Amino acid sequence: MKKINLKDLEKSYGVESFSSDFANSLEKANLSYEELSADEARQVASDITQKIDAEQFTKVGQHRENIWRDAWEDVWLAFEKSGYDIAELDPKFMSAAPIIRLNQRFVKALNPRFELAFFALFRNWLFETYLKEIDHVFEFGCGSVFNLAALAQLYPQKKLTGLDWAPASQKIAKALAGHHQMNLVGRRFDFFNPDVSLEIPDNSAVMTFCALEQIGGNFGQILDFILSKKPKIVLHMEPTIEYYDPENTTDALAIRYHKWREYLDGYYTRLRALEVEGKIKILKSKRLYFGSLYHESYSCHVWEPVG
Ligand SMILES: C[S@@+](CC[C@H](N)C(=O)[O-])C[C@H]1O[C@@H](n2cnc3c(N)ncnc32)[C@H](O)[C@@H]1O
């Protein structure tokens, strides 16, 4: 058995050291796993190839609005039925399979909540590193609102706004405010038709987690919208096709999967071009070398508008 340690995460996050609080959180997260044999790894790769060849995966995009509406409605009903238990908001698509991606190979997670725990650890580190001094945080494509609920638990004073095209998301935000006294509101928002009347005050942050992934190459409108609102800082955790190495067989499968599903395409390239044009400054951009069975949703980009 192996376990992710601080040295592993220093490399993954691209930082030199962590606080003792972070070390304690890592210990609690119990990120234990074991290596696969060469045969097992080949079998995993072959199963994925077969699924892609058999066209078993859906493509993302505008036509999926009803699918997200229904998926989050189910989560809302379960949340309501549980008496508003925040654990009900954890997305079911995380930690769905024991096989995960680590450092460009497949490994077997021994903790059934490995993926969610790894994600949450990094997400909370991002919050503490970049959002401490921010007054108002806007999450676009917030889904079950579980990221904002975690942020509210860390920083109860911050104003939080959760945006999504699925109506259940707004019901969950309202219930979190009412039943958990969170400083949180929900509002409908469509990436394909951004609501320009949304005000983003001074000293605000914009963030997206596995949300822009859903719009393929059609990110022009939402990116222009964010730029026009001039938030203080922007955080993304999104699959980033530019980071994969086509020569690595595990990465090559992620590229095939990403392209088949029509996930986010060219966003990081566009951010770098905007930096060259002097319109934004990229503060951090890092592949974590960690992902689920099919791909890596968790590369991070942190940037700020210039001027
Ligand atoms: C994979 S989920 C991620 C949700 C949440 N950020 C998380 O970390 O669990 C993608 C989210 O993007 C939302 N979404 C997809 N396309 C959208 C669009 N065009 N406008 C607004 N939200 C959209 C979906 O409703 C869903 O909540």
Q: How many DSSP H or I helices?
A: 10
Q: Which class best fits the helix and strand makeup? A: alpha/beta
Q: Helicity range of the residues?
A: 40-55%
Percent range for β-strand residues = 15-25%
In summary, what is this structure?
With 307 residues, the chain is an alpha/beta fold. Helices cover 40% and strands 19% of the residues.
Keywords summarizing the entry:
about 300 residues, alpha/beta, 7-stranded mixed β-sheet, 5-stranded antiparallel β-sheet, about 40% helix, about 20% strand, binds S-adenosylmethionine
Detail the topology: elements first, then pairings.
Elements: E1 2-3, H1 6-13, H2 20-29, E2 32-35, H3 38-53, H4 65-81, E3 99-102, E4 105-109, H5 114-130, E5 136-140, H6 146-154, E6 159-164, H7 167-180, E7 184-188, E8 204-209, H8 220-229, E9 233-238, H9 249-261, H10 267-276, E10 280-286, E11 290-291, E12 299-305
Parallel strand pairs: 5-6, 5-8, 6-7, 8-9
Antiparallel strand pairs: 1-2, 2-4, 3-4, 3-11, 9-12, 10-12
Helix pairs in contact: 2-5, 3-9, 4-7, 5-6
The site of S-adenosylmethionine has 19 residues, from loops.
Task: Write structural notes for this entry.
The structure is a single chain. The strands form 2 sheets. This protein has a 7-stranded mixed sheet, sandwiched between helices. It has a 5-stranded antiparallel sheet with strand order 1-2-4-3-11. The model has no long low-confidence stretch (mean pLDDT 97). With 307 residues, it is of the alpha/beta class. The protein is 40% helix and 19% strand. It has 10 helices and 12 strands. The protein has one domain (2-60, 91-141, 189-305). Strand 8 (204-209), helix 8 and strand 9 form a beta-alpha-beta unit. The structure holds S-adenosylmethionine.
